[in-house]
Amino acid sequence: MTRVLIVEDQRSVRETVREMLVSAGYQVIEAHNGESAVAITQQQQPDLVLCDVQMPGMSGFDVLSALRQDPTTAVVPFIFLTAKTGKEELRQGMDLGADDYLTKPFTASELIRAVQVRLQKQAALALQAE
């Protein structure tokens, strides 16, 4: 089963995203802050990370940067979930290597489609590497 890590400091948002993903057939792992997200990703190797940008302590940008610097997590697909809609934030996330950027509020279908597309792309890259 495909494992998705949700990194979100607001429990209500995390629970909503979890319900969307579980109903679509994904196994969900949760982190409430950036520090635990990095540790969980290194230990459990999720198939994809969904991460809020604005969090206390380690921001989503910091999480992505840390994951991209570690060879064991560098290629894990990463999608930002954020209320920040500015062009600068979007560009910063993409420059760090984000695979996608969903702005809140988003629908279940938008979320699931973004996840599916990133996982399909990852599978195609893995197949090509073989």
Question: Can you walk me through this structure?
Answer:
By secondary structure, the chain is of the alpha/beta class. 50% of the residues lie in helices and 18% in strands. It contains 5 helices and 5 strands; from the N terminus they run E-H-E-H-E-H-E-H-E-H. The protein has helices at 11-23, 34-44, 60-69, 87-95, 108-129, and strands spanning 3-7, 27-31, 48-52, 78-82, 100-103. A 5-stranded parallel sheet has the order 2-1-3-4-5, sandwiched between helices. Strand 4, helix 4 and strand 5 form a beta-alpha-beta unit. The mean pLDDT is 93.
What keyword list fits this structure?
globular, five-stranded parallel β-sheet, 130 residues, alpha/beta
Annotate the secondary structure layout.
Elements: E1 3-7, H1 11-23, E2 27-31, H2 34-44, E3 48-52, H3 60-69, E4 78-82, H4 87-95, E5 100-103, H5 108-129
Parallel strand pairs: 1-2, 1-3, 3-4, 4-5
Major β-sheet strand ordering: 2-1-3-4-5
The string of secondary-structure elements, in order, is EHEHEHEHEH
The average pLDDT value, as a whole number, equals 93
| Helical segment count | 5
Share in β-strands: 15-25%
- Span between N and C termini? 21 Å
> Shape from CA axes?
globular
Structural class: alpha/beta
**Helicity level, as a percent range?**
40-55%
What Rg, in angstroms, do the CA atoms define?
A: 13 Å
Given as residue ranges, the uncertain stretches (5+ residues, pLDDT < 50) are none
The largest pleated sheet is described as:
5 strands, parallel
How many strand units? 5
